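Can anyone check this?
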Amino acid sequence: MYLGRFLFFVLIAELGSCLTLLELAQFKSRVYTESNTGVQGFVRLSDTNLSTYEIQSNGIPDHKTGKAASKIEAQTYSIKLPTTPVFASATTCLPDGPIGMAINGVPIFNPYSHDCCDKGKKRLDNLDECWGLVDDLGRYHYMMTPACLFKLTCNNPSQLIGVAFDGFPIYGPNDETGRRITKADLDACNGRYNRYRKYRYHITTEFPYTIGCFRGVPAPGYAGTCLCSNLTEPCPNQQPPNPSTPPASRKRRSVDTGITSLTCCASANNCDHLYNDKSSANTARTTLSFLLFTFTTALTLML
């Protein structure tokens, strides 16, 4: 029975726009105790049936957060996503709160504020050095570039960042050839088809930063009342960000616009992300991922 499930998943991953087994294997949390909570983050994936899989996490980041995240609290996230995302007949605007999940189990939030402004600009001074922040419910989250989550190597394809709650993957700012993505390359939802005709979202240094709408049919509970479909500009009652010294890393604050900018590394060996090879993924899952990768490769060659 389980072999049949894996064979089915391999085939639809190769033919469709769903996350591949290699992409799913990237969902892991670094062995790191968050200083404000004393809690270690975790993220787990499981298949519920042939049509869905489930992501569970406590939302605790696996990197430094600083004093700005002193009110962070462990959460209970559980989201079922389609193994094969379905394109909707029309785009769906984003609900308030979580709209995706990063590979370390931290949720990605709607980039719109309640008054339909750029939340990144409005909350710029509340962001920590990894460009995360905490809301009034103690939920740590990203709504802009999660800069401590990936390496950005010049002229190299970007890594997987996470998955949107319609099942489509979210990638970094470079395409599959290593070229930097621009807004002109993306649709209204911040997504595009790659050269293999697979749809994916990309993070950008401009609004909406992660995704601007759902291109696929969202998971149950994430297609609620539409709060914002267009950005309000200029935003009323918005103060310009305070000048600050950029952290010594690949991300910088732009005082003029309040938007992040990214500088790529000439070599992956000297990039300053905070991941390492240790994770909460157990040995059995790691071994299984390797076996599935071997099987997928062999199947692809036979086809």
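Reply from J.R.: I decoded it. Confidence is low (pLDDT under 50) at residues 1-15, 241-258, 274-303.
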